[in-house]
Amino acid sequence: MALMLVKFDMKKRVKLAQTIWFLYWFAVMAGVLVFSMGLFFKIELRKRSELMDNNESHLLPNVLILMGLIACGVNAFGGKVCYDSLDPSKFIKWKPMLKPFLMFCVGFNGLLFVTALLCFVMRIPLQFTLAEGLKNGMRFYKDTDTPGRCYMKRTLDLMQMEFRCCGNDHYRDWFEIQWVSNRYLDFSAKEVKDRIGSNVDGQYLMDGVPFSCCNPSSPRPCIQGQMTNNTAHYSYDHYTEELNVWKRGCREAMVSYYGGMMNTIGALVLLVTMLEIAVTIGLQYINSSLSSLVNPEDPESESEGWILEKTVGETFTDIMANMKAMSKGGKVEEEAEAGVATVS
Amino acid sequence: MVLLKIKFTQQRRVHLAQGLWLLSWTAVIWGAIIFCLGVYLKMELLRRDEVMDNTEIHVVPNILIIVGLASIGTNWVASCVCQDSLDATRFPRWKVFLLGWFAVAAVLCCLLISVVALSFALQGRLEESLKVGLRNGIRFYKDTDVPGRCYQKETIDRLQMEFRCCGNNNFKDWFEVQWVSSRYLNFTSKDVKDRIRSNVDGRYLLDGVPFSCCNPSSPRPCLRYTLTDNNAHFNYEYQSEELNVYSRGCRQALTDYYMELMNSTGPGVLSVILIQMSVILGMRYLQTAVEGIMALEDPEGESDGFLLEKGVKETMEDLKVKALIMLQFWLVDPIATEGSSEDADLEKAEKEASPTPAS
Fold first, then answer.
1. C-alpha B145: how far from its chain's center?
2. Per the CB < 8 Å rule, is B217 touching A154?
3. B235 at the A interface (CB within 8 A)?
4. Does residue A258 contact residue A30 with C-beta atoms inside 8 Å?
5. B 141-180 residues with CB below 8 A of A?
6. Measured distance CA(A167)–CA(A171) in Å, rounded
7. Is A216's CB within 8 Å of B161's CB?
8. Is the ipTM of this structure higher than 0.90?
9. What is the C-alpha separation between A262 and B251, in angstroms, rounded?
10. To the nearest whole angstrom, how far is the Cα of A166 from the nearest Cα of chain B?
């Protein structure tokens, strides 16, 4: 007994073919959408690859681009087949290719689903890459004269201003590294000598942050230096001061930015997967309804359409039997050859 | 003698109608594009409303929006006329509207040309408006506790960061205003008292700028205070330091931005003018050709299409005569009523005068 049997007359078949043709063109545009989302994500990762130590994994955008291209091709082919299905003479040439094509579509839909899951899962490795990259980025903030790192300061400043964040986890991360280049430190001054002497590595550490951490919403002009010293500034208490610098850490900001992007892309890919499954089922109905005509000579006769010729269980056992037969057939051939060899 | 006469066969008339139909739909789409451009320009101007003193420049996007909508309507009507033009029963109902249509289309073209002219002419007014607006913004930067001005600081900071500019003309504008609120000044300290006494108005002036003036491309951490004092910072020379703070003034930055925006709409507006004029010309030819055919009562025959029935001079003369007739008609009527009332007065006076000698 077939799975989800539906009776078709000529009019119904025509309507089905037209609907599925229309849906296939929709699916081509969905394929273009997936491709462009992959491209957009790749560009976004490239833009900030400096902050991720050039270590970020481009697996997800590459997979999306590939899936988008394959989807465009597959759906365009499916649309052509649907268009030709209304004309029996043209449909004949596509008939032998349909079964393998449908199997390929089923496999492709599975891969699309896996891609959608990948979008949600890849957030975790990205988090670790960002944490490492930002920590190193902050260390190289002062190296504006080192080739290869001279733009790190600008990149970090622009990022902190754009994402409204400061430091890796919070602004105190800047207190632990030297972010002022030695070229601008007067080593003969007492203050500088004190600060350098105050720690093991001989670094010039200050309780101050770069200007890009400043919050424009603050009612008072930004306090960047001597942030932990309440007496250095009039009417200032660094425990209660909230609007002075950005409170959020940049790792959290970037992760939520990229995470949001990946969630959106994952949701869209899921929708595209469902559309692909729908058109695959539709094509299967077209195929089965055209191959089961009651009167093969009369194109206007009635027919039946189904998703699977037998039930799920029977189809599964059939596939297993086929695979066993193929492997046995291989074995029998080998034995025959061996027999022939021994005989000869 | 007719102006630019062209012979139209049945085939040519059909082609003209079809071509014009397509052209008018193209013009509808361009009208929609002009409308969107106008809306976008208006939104961009409204975003920076707080640093502009007046809204004179808003006339450019307003005209674009009106012209865009009117162009969509006008060209849609044109496409309907084209569709009906080949059907002798349906065309007559459009005959009445066509003169009005030509007038509206001509007005649209004039408005579009005026937009291009205005966007150049108003540049000076825009700069003036920005100058005053930015000056106020900088003066009220510190008033984060005054209702109505408490967001001035945030607006100016975000503006300077986004447009990479500092101050009105340059960063020295910040040296001339007190941009630190008095709430955060310790009036007992010597430095504050010195600075306040150093000028007539008693303002706390510094040779420093807000953090939003800092340039991220600078190789050294941003120096914001005591900018004119070379000794205050190690390895620093005020005259040669270029990358520390933004050197461009915000007035220049904003003017350049808006001029660029308006100039980029220039080609779009010019192409709409060209398309509209070709629609007008095509419509005139179609109108005269179809009217000629309807007069001949032979749908398959030939007819003449022309721009003006008589030459340009003769048409102007005709129009002048018509206008004078209308004017005279309007003038003669009041004179006639005045004349009749004068006669009545004269008669009355005579009547009054005549009885006296008798009595």
1. 37
2. yes
3. yes
4. no
5. 144-145, 150, 153-154, 157-158, 161, 179-180
6. 5
7. yes
8. no
9. 40
10. 15
Tokens at A60, concatenated: 């997800």
In angstroms, what separates the C-alpha of B306 from chain A's closest C-alpha?
A: 47
For the record, the structure tokens of A266 come out as 């994952």
Per-residue pLDDT for chain B (359 aa), expressed as one digit of tens each? 677 788 888 888 888 889 999 999 999 999 999 999 999 999 999 999 989 988 888 999 999 999 999 999 999 999 998 888 877 788 878 888 888 899 999 999 999 999 999 988 999 999 999 999 999 999 999 999 999 888 999 999 999 999 999 999 999 999 999 999 999 999 999 999 999 998 888 899 999 999 999 999 999 999 999 999 888 888 888 888 889 999 999 999 999 999 999 888 888 899 999 999 999 999 988 888 888 887 877 767 777 777 777 777 887 888 788 888 888 887 776 655 555 455 545 555 555 555 444 44
**Pairwise CB contact (< 8 Å): A179 & B221:** yes
Residue with structure tokens 């300077």?
B160
Note the Cα A3 to chain centre separation in Å: 35
**CB B154 to CB A217 under 8 A?**
yes
Compute CA B97 distance to the chain's CA centroid, rounded to the nearest angstrom. Answer: 28
| Contact call for B234 and A184, based on CB within 8 A | yes
- Nearest by CB to residue A235, choosing from B150, B157, B184, is B184
Q: Which chain B positions have a beta carbon within 8 Å of A216's beta carbon? A: 153-154, 157-158, 161, 212
What is the pTM for the complete model shown? 0.78
